[in-house]
Amino acid sequence: MAAAITAEGLVKTFGDVRALDGVDLEVPEGTVLGLLGPNGAGKTTTVRVLTTLLRPDAGRAVVAGVDVLKEPNRVRSLIGLSGQYAAVDEYLTGRENLQMVGELYQMKPREAKARALELLEWFNLSEAADRTAKTYSGGMRRRLDLAAALVVRPPVMFLDEPTTGLDPRNRLALWEVIETLVAQGTTLLLTTQYLEEADRLAHDIAVVDHGQVIARGSADELKAQIGGERVEVVVHNRELIPTALEALTPYAKGEPAVEQHTRRITVPVSGGARVLADVIRELDGRNIIIDDIGLRRPTLDDVFLSLTGHAAEDSEEGAAKDADGSGTTTGKDA
Amino acid sequence: MAATTPAAIGHAVPQPRGGAVQVLRDSWVVAKRNLRRMTRIPEIVVFGLMQPVMFVLLFSYVMGGAIKVPGSGGESAYREFLMAGIFAQTVTFAVAGASAGVAEDMTKGLVDRFRSLPMARSAVLVGRTIADVVQTAFTVLVLAAVALLVGWRIHEGVLKALGAFLLLLMLGYAFSWIGALIGLSVRSPEAATSAGLIWLFPLTFLSNAFVPVSTMPGWLQAIAYWNPFSATVQACRKLFGNPGVDPAHVWPMEHPVEASLAWSLLILALFSWLAVRKYRNAVG
To answer: What CATH code is carried by the domain that includes residue A72?
Structure first.
């Protein structure tokens, strides 16, 4: 499959900060790459370079078959960009916003108008079409912003933290839209700090930290890298723990872990659901009462923690700084 | 958000045409947007009017009696002298509108959106400054009506008066590019408003706008005569036939129309070049 986005050795420094330190990426046509990383890892800077907003100090990038550095204006007519926060004019109506973007994508005014109405309907904004965006809720503005990125049905889209700050309901709605787009063949590069989002939407994930890609692969591949599955058992009372351990030993592929106060025993296993069934039968046979049992696979959180040594979602303070800093000081956001 | 309308790709993507036609077309799209905004935030237009109207009334009735216009007597002499200065000050205050507007677009991410679109690189700023000059023209029109009420008159015919207004709008247009550059350079719209205005006060007062230059110390007179602002004010007084045309033997005072045009074109050329360059490289 041809690559819709290629980046090779992207370097960008802001003063002393090496925001991008040799980023390589490849996104095959029609797939979704999730760029995952903490604040300041280089996600936004990567997107800004690929969308022609920022010139890298070194490296090469090709988007939709066009060289980003040599023919930026041709790239611009083939991409859609939706940023971390809604870049819409709040004193224009939803319809006027989309029509303006359409005309600036060089569509004829009549086509731009028709496309605006079509998108407003698709994004459930028809009723609010003639109200200024100032009156829109946060979720509506995000939808309008995403609609603006879709005006020309671009083959390649860049979404920079599209759901940051959205409530769960709106986040889910936006995910559905994104899934529809991808199903129709759009290639998508998505940055996110939400592992759940990457897990659900991305075919491939590139973990970025300190301006470098430190791991890549599908969510399952990344999870497999840091270890396999395990059975977790919560027994009814503490007295049962020794017997339970004894019962579990034949299935264990490693040292069991015991948390006395939660009465939880975790045992590395292999064999999936069948092992789980065997374990349940075994425990039942010994009359061990269990409160909870399950087969757990590592989450992307575990992956992230083991790769970077810190959690993906930074403190509230960091997230807030990222969200409003991007407008004026993206250089430092990097 | 049902998937009723497919957003399917592969649709013919319009190609940017490039060239002057695209610059004009894209600039007009952006100008339309800015003009729409003005009708939705009428406060901006209203407050833009209040300051010059207040100046007309304060200067006419409070300070007018104390300032003598050389070579002309009469009660309304200072009011007639004053108006060219107020007009010129008003058009240059377009700087504040441009700088605040551009800075707001920067902080709200709109400049990023525009820069990611296949549109002419200069269009965002050209569109902005065109909308500003339309607003300025409206302000000048209302101001002229107020001026007529307090006793200002034109004495050299309508054509020359129109010429004077054109010179004023040229100066205002050139100055709004200074505003655009300021807006791209500062970090917040609030800072842009102050940064856009602070230097305008000395610029407009170190000129022939409010008092005859002959009353200033010698070294200040040289500055005042070569101030771009003074050339336009002198040209307007001449074209309106208002009192107080400075008889000084300095080139910009002897050829004020040419000097005004030259200054405006120079400022326009320099600052549009700087601003568009800044916009291209903007790290939004």
So the answer is: 3.40.50.300
**pLDDT tens track for A2-27:** 889 999 999 999 988 899 999 999 99
Q: Count Cα neighbours of A185 within 13 Å in the Cβ-side half-sphere.
A: 12
Among the partner-chain residues A89, A90, A330, the one whose CB lies closest to the CB of B284 is A330
| CB contact (8 A) between residue B15 and residue A328 | no
> Mean pLDDT across the stretch A287-310?
79
Please report whether residue A170 resides in a domain: yes
Phi, psi of A132 (to 5 degrees): -70, 150
Q: Is B124 on the interface with A (CB under 8 A)?
A: no
> What is the tally of structural domains in chain A?
2
3-state SS, residue A286: coil
Residue A180 forms part of a structural domain: yes
Cβ–Cβ contact B277 with A under 8 A: no
Instruction: Give the mutation candidate from A97, A101, A106, A330 for the B interface (greatest B CB count, under 10 A).
Output: A106
Instruction: Please choose, from the candidates B34, B132, B136, the residue with its C-alpha nearest in 3D space to the C-alpha of residue B88.
Output: B136
The pLDDT score that the predictor gives to residue A27 is: 95
Q: Inter-chain contact A107–B14, Cβ cutoff 8 Å? A: yes
For residue range B156-182, list pLDDT tens digits in order. 999 999 999 999 999 999 999 999 999
Tokens 């290629």, residue located:
A6
Closest CA to B208 of B240, B181, B243, B177: B243
B8 vs A: CB within 8 A: yes
Q: Do A327 and B6 touch (CB under 8 A)?
A: no
CB contact under 8 A, B36 and A76: no
Whose tokens are 């575990």? That residue is A302
Is A42 within a domain? yes
Interface check for B114 against chain A (CB to CB < 8 A): the answer is: yes
A204 and A250, same domain (yes or no): no
Tell me: the pLDDT tens digits for B245-256? 888 899 999 999
Residue A323 pLDDT greater than 60, yes or no: no
Amino acid at B172: G
Tell me which chain B residues have a C-beta less than 8 angstroms from the C-beta of A124. 1
Is the same domain home to A290 and A309? no
The whole-model pTM stands at 0.81
Q: Chain A contacts of B186, Cβ < 8 Å? A: none
Q: Which domain holds residue A252?
A: 228-296
Are A96 and B36 an interchain contact pair (Cβ–Cβ within 8 Å)? yes
User: Is A29 in CB contact (< 8 Å) with chain B?
Assistant: no
Q: Is B2 left (phi over 0), alpha (psi -120 to 50) or beta?
A: beta
A325 & A292 share domain: no
Residue of A76, A124, A176 lying closest to B116 (CB–CB): A76
Residue A97 within any structural domain of the chain: no
Please answer whether residues A88 and A97 qualify as being in contact, where contact means their C-beta atoms are separated by less than 8 angstroms: yes
Shortest CA gap A132–chain B (Å): 9
Instruction: Give the tokens for residue A286.
Output: 């010994």
Amino acid at B134: V
Average pLDDT score over chain A: 86
